[in-house]
Design goal:
mainly alpha, elongated, 0% strand
Length: 160
């Protein structure tokens, strides 16, 4: 059961991250006015950030328990999870507040962030945030790729 829950959480986290970041956000910016698309995307990335924290912490707890019970395949996955969690914490909880503050200041001035005095700083932070998102995505793909099957991940001595 813990292995299945681990796989389900991995699917939820990585699947939503890839969908929002690489399908939904580009469609938003291609379909909507830039300020509206940015606002909707920011809300989606906020949800994704919290989902990443919840799934990441739960998966770390599960992988530690499984590794202690003899499912050694989960030991290496803990490093991928830790890397993904660091990317979420830095990308969303460290960088996004600054980006959101700049977006709000620009909106209060009645301009798009791209036409505001904050444009270059916002662009730099957006680039750094995008890099963390890409790293998290690649770690997530590696995590899903390396997921042990529920049979091969059974703790030693457990009946299959």
């Amino acid at each position: 059961m813990p292995q299945r829950l681990f796989g389900l959480l991995a699917m939820l986290w990585v699947g939503s991250q890839l969908t929002i970041g690489y399908a939904v956000a580009p469609v938003l910016f291609a379909s909507l006015e830039r300020m509206v698309a940015g606002s909707v995307a920011a809300q989606l990335f906020r949800i994704e950030g919290w989902l990443g924290v919840v799934c990441g912490v739960a998966m770390l707890v599960l992988s530690n328990g499984l590794a202690r019970r003899g499912a050694v395949q989960y030991r290496r996955l803990r490093w991928l999870l830790a890397g993904m969690l660091v990317c979420v914490l830095v990308g969303y909880f460290a960088l996004q507040p600054f980006m959101n503050a700049m977006r709000v200041e620009a909106m209060n001035a009645g301009v798009d962030i791209a036409n505001s005095p904050y444009a270059s700083r916002f662009g730099m932070l957006h680039g750094v945030s995008s890099l963390f998102y890409l790293i998290e995505s690649l770690l997530g793909v590696a995590l899903v790729w390396l997921l042990p099957s529920t049979r091969s991940a059974a703790p030693r001595g457990a009946s299959r």
